[in-house]
Amino acid sequence: MKCNLYGSGLKMYGLTHDSENNQYLMVFLYADKGNLHTFLRTNFQDLSWKIKLKLLKDISHDLLRIHIAGYIHSDFHS
Predict the structure, then answer these.
(1) How many angstroms separate the CA atoms of 63 and 57, rounded?
(2) What is the DSSP string of 11-71?
(3) pTM for the model
(4) Where is the Protein kinase domain (predicted)?
(5) Nearest-angstrom CA–CA distance, 12 and 7
(6) φ, ψ dihedrals at 40, nearest 5°
(7) What confidence score (pLDDT) does residue 6 get?
C-alpha cells in the first residue's frame, strides 16, 4: 500500500494490522530523538518560543494531512 500525505513533513511507510488487539497501526519513519513527551521534557528550556510554536504548527498540519487522507490518529499525547 502506498501512503501519500502530500504536504506533510511525515514519512509514512504504510499500515499494518495488530491481530492480537485487532488494531490498525500507521508505520512512520523512526524518530531518532524519541517521542514528543521525552523530547520536550529534555529540551523544553533550550527551545525558543518560536521553535515551540513551529513544532505545534507542524504537528497540527501533519494531523490535518492524516485526517484528509482518511486516517485517524487515535492515541495522540505528549
Answers:
(1) 10
(2) -EEEEEEETTTTEEEEEE---TT--HHHHHHHHGGGS-HHHHHHHHHHHHHHHHHHHHTT-
(3) 0.63
(4) 1-78
(5) 12
(6) -70, -40
(7) 56
Tell me how far apart the alpha carbons of residues 4 and 12 are, in angstroms, rounded to a whole number: 7
Q: What is the pLDDT of residue 70?
A: 82
First CA to last CA distance, the chain: 29
Q: Give the Cα separation of 9 and 29 in Å (integer).
A: 10
The ranges of the chain with pLDDT < 70 are: 1-10, 75-78
Write the Ramachandran bin of 11: left for phi over 0, alpha for psi from -120 to 50, otherwise beta: beta
> Residue 69's pLDDT is what?
80
In the block, which residue shows the cell 485526517?
Answer: 67
